[in-house]
Amino acid sequence: MANNEESRGLKSLFDWFANRRKSGSTSLERQEREIADGLWHKCSKCSVLAYTKDLKANQMVCVECGHHNRVDSDERIRQLIDNNTWKPLDEHLRPTDPLEFRDRKLYSDRLRETQDKIGLIDAVRTGLGQINSLPIALGVMDFRFMGGSMGSVVGERLTRMIEQATQRRYPVVIICTSGGARMQEGMLSLMQMAKISAALQRHKDARLLYIPVLTNPTTGGVTASFAMLGDIILAEPKATIGFAGRRVIEQTLREKLPENFQTAEDLLQHGFVDDIVPRTQLKNTLTQLIALHQPVLTTPHMVLWETMSLTSTAAE
Ligand SMILES: [Zn+2]
């Protein structure tokens, strides 16, 4: 009898712990759940917890250490384009699997899973819009979609957008982030480099402005083509920018590479990048650069005034 009661007591104690675990009532569990729910964001650099709403208000730049957290294409468009002016282009273009490629899984399955998971058709979004009332054609790569890899749809969307911009005489801005070419599309993916570059050359021949913005990371075939073809090349602080990965180069050269190798700061020092612009200043910097290259009559007074004051500050 006593044994029964003891075991009942023990059982209920187990139940109590089990229930407590299930209800997630400890503060640590609650904290973890809130991070998972996206209420809080832990900085991957300095580990400081920030309220996601505050972090978003600061364009996902850590207020503590200035680390530029990764931003998806939705957020980028919101940060750069004036409200209600975004007109997406070529949303109907969908990737296919012409090689019926299989690595650990079928490419077609991988595509479908990624599309379902993040709600995008491919790794770039293109469109026309206004930045502080100036018209631009904007392409934004999204690293969440297979590492921002450049497949046929990425190439075709960017090419069509650049062609539209040439026709309308709009400047082009591309926010780059990519692991490189999409190996699952083989040669078709490599051809995109030449196709986009040719469209950019025609845009340049029409004496129009192109500004790529290199964000973390910009590598492989994207660096080897449109990311480096800008009239003015901007980068975000501490972004990794390179062609082959650090480890591959170290193994080939059998040399240890310096700590800041392939960073935006190193590239700026060696003349591959024209300026490093913190994300919170990107919209204004792009506006000023575009305004400087616009005919004066189409420049809104405020932007022109800002540009003039910038020029006079620089002259001093
Ligand atoms: Zn931080």
Per-chain topology:
Elements: H1 2-23, H2 27-37, E1 40-42, E2 49-51, H3 52-57, H4 73-80, E3 87-88, H5 107-118, E4 124-131, E5 134-141, H6 152-168, E6 172-178, H7 186-205, E7 210-218, H8 220-223, E8 234-235, H9 246-253, H10 264-269, E9 275-276, H11 279-292, H12 301-315
Parallel strand pairs: 5-6, 6-7, 7-8, 8-9
Antiparallel strand pairs: 1-2, 3-4, 4-5
The protein binds zinc ion.
Zinc ion is lined by residues 43, 45-46, 48, 62, 64-65, 67.
What does this structure look like?
This protein is an alpha/beta fold and 316 residues long. It has a single domain (71-315), classed as 2-enoyl-CoA Hydratase, Chain A, domain 1 (Alpha-Beta Complex). 45% of the residues lie in helices and 14% in strands. It contains twelve helices and nine strands. The strands form two sheets. It has a seven-stranded mixed sheet with strand order 3-4-5-6-7-8-9, sandwiched between helices. The protein has a two-stranded antiparallel sheet with strand order 1-2. β1 and β2 form a beta hairpin. α6 (152-168) runs parallel beside α7 and α11 (279-292) packs across α12. The longest helix is centred in the N-terminal third of the chain and has 22 residues, at 2-23. It starts with a helix and ends with a helix. Residues 43, 45-46, 48, 62, 64-65, 67 line the site of zinc ion (ZN).
Secondary structure: number of strands: 9
Helix content: 40-55%
The first-level CATH class name: Alpha Beta
- What is the terminal separation in angstroms? 94 Å
Low-confidence spans: none
| Global Rg | 24 Å
Main β-sheet: number of strands, strand sense, barrel status?
A: 7 strands, mixed
CATH architecture descriptor:
Alpha-Beta Complex
Indicate the mean pLDDT.
88
Q: CATH topology, which one? A: 2-enoyl-CoA Hydratase, Chain A, domain 1
Query: What is the topology, as strand order, of the major beta sheet?
Result: 3-4-5-6-7-8-9
- Globally, the shape reads globular
Bound molecules: zinc ion
- Strand residue percentage: 5-15%
Under CATH, the homologous superfamily reads 2-enoyl-CoA Hydratase, Chain A, domain 1
What is the overall number of helices?
12
Element order, helices and strands?
Answer: HHEEHHEHEEHEHEHEHHEHH
Domains (count): 1
What class do helices, strands and sheet pairing give? alpha/beta
